[in-house]
Amino acid sequence: MTIRVSSLVTAHEIINTLCFRKQVIQTHNIKIFIKYLILFLLGGYTYYGIEILWRGYSHYSMIICGGICFIYAGLQNEQVEWDYPFWKQVLRVEAFILSAEFITGCIVNLWLGLNVWDYSDLPGNILGQTCPQFALLFLPLSAIAIIVDDFIRWKWFGEEKPRYKWR
Q1: Is residue 129 part of a domain?
Q2: Residue 160 DSSP symbol
Q3: Contact 55, 86 (CB under 8 A)
Q4: Which of 68, 124, 128, 129 gives 105 a disulfide partner, CB atoms 3.0 to 4.6 angstroms apart?
Q5: What pLDDT sits at residue 27?
């Protein structure tokens, strides 16, 4: 049986290439994980902090809810083109935040019985977990979240410079 040196070199090169490619993919995945972890924590702790400033207290579930909402706000420009009207992005984020707040409330307050908040005394509330009054507060927060996330992605992570269609 004859083994040619060129075959061994080729096999060696293939193995090195595959190992390098795997390492590049792993490094890329780690960078993506770290990026989203930073965005999640930034959004979560900001949401938590706003609630402490507003009500004087909060619950760790709001860090989770806020982090998820912030990531969703940032994904707007991943899901739609830059020429998609900004006000429509804000409404999409608003709807997501209200849904996330409602689901979190149902889990934390109704299912687990932790009674972190109860909006039952406010008009228009849904099961005491969300209400129109707070929905109005989420509109400017949605706009700010989109802009801040885009700025962070641009400056910290080298992504595309943000631009918006205001009409």
Answers
A1: yes
A2: P
A3: no
A4: 129
A5: 77
Report the number of distinct structural domains present in the chain: 1
In the block, tokens 């809810």 appear at 65
In the 3-class helix/strand/coil scheme, how is the chain assigned residue by residue? CCCCHHHHHHHHHHHHHHHHHHHHHHHHHHHHHHHHHHHHHHHHHHHHHHHHHHHCCCCCHHHHHHHHHHHHHHCHHHHCCCCCEHHHHHHHHHHHHHHHHHHHHHHHHHHCCCCCCCCCCCCCCECCCECHHHHHHHHHHHHHHHHHHHHHHHHHHCCCCCCCECC
Q: Which domain, by its residues, includes 119?
A: 41-157
Summarize pLDDT for 41-81 with one digit per residue, the tens: 999 999 999 999 988 999 999 999 999 999 999 998 787 88
Please give the pLDDT value at position 48: 95
